[in-house]
Specification:
- 41% of the residues are buried.
- The chain has one domain: Rossmann fold (3-Layer(aba) Sandwich).
- The strands form 2 sheets. It has a 6-stranded parallel sheet with strand order 1-10-7-4-2-3, with helices on both faces.
- Helix content is 39%, strand content 21%.
- By secondary structure, it is α/β, with parallel strands linked by helices.
Length: 209
């Protein structure tokens, strides 16, 4: 990464972390993926129950593999036969891992979901939620964050899942009502009522979609 852009991200992360603090959430700055992994693992208690929604970012920094191999009780919905039971069990987890589809530079998180298991667990249930967020997802305001979530993250995820949505074919949001749409629920997290519940690790890298 260009040194000037690296410094820009570091400075912007400082602003985001202050914004998160004003919203009763905790932010961290990670200089790279290895740093982000170390911070994340430091937030997860040994022997704790860990669940997650779909998160490319958590996988990209090695967090998913580390949790699977570590001293944790991982609720892996990819191997548990009853997928619905696995999703429901996530609500009582000690830690829920996620990313954000976008966020504002003053600390508002934006997420879109199809089944709602991810956004509902972010909103309520797990004792702690850890977000892994690449600096590529930080936007100047809520409007641009919503546009990023709908026109960048959603089409890329629809293509990743092989869904037959208009955005998977055009590359941009068509405000569809397709049976395959993943834009069913929108969650804007502007404040956490519970201190020490939401933790956001900002990574000086391009992660996820």
């Amino acid at each position: 990464m260009n040194e000037n852009f690296y410094k820009r991200n570091e400075l912007l992360a400082g602003k985001v972390i202050k914004g998160l603090a004003s919203r009763n959430m905790t932010g961290y700055y990670a200089k790279d993926a290895a740093d982000a992994l170390e911070i994340a693992l430091g937030l997860i208690p040994e022997g704790g129950t860990v669940a997650m929604g779909g998160s490319m970012s958590a996988a990209e920094i090695g967090l998913v593999d580390a949790v699977k191999k570590g001293n944790y009780r991982f609720i892996d919905r990819e191997v548990i036969p009853d997928r619905r039971a696995a999703m429901l069990a996530a609500y009582d987890a000690d830690v829920f891992l996620s990313s954000a589809n976008a966020m504002t530079d003053d600390g508002i998180l934006v997420n879109i979901d199809g089944n709602a298991n991810r956004v509902s667990a972010i909103a309520f249930g797990p004792k702690k939620v850890i977000f892994i967020v690449g600096m590529n997802k930080v936007c100047p305001d809520l409007d641009s964050a919503m546009k990023r979530a709908r026109s960048v993250a959603a089409p890329a995820n629809a293509q990743r899942f092989g869904l037959s949505t208009p955005c998977s074919k055009t590359g941009s949001c068509m405000d569809c009502k397709s049976p395959d749409t993943i834009c069913c629920q929108f969650l804007v997290t502007r404040f956490s009522r519970h201190a020490d519940r939401i933790h956001v690790i900002l990574v000086n890298d391009t992660l996820g979609f």
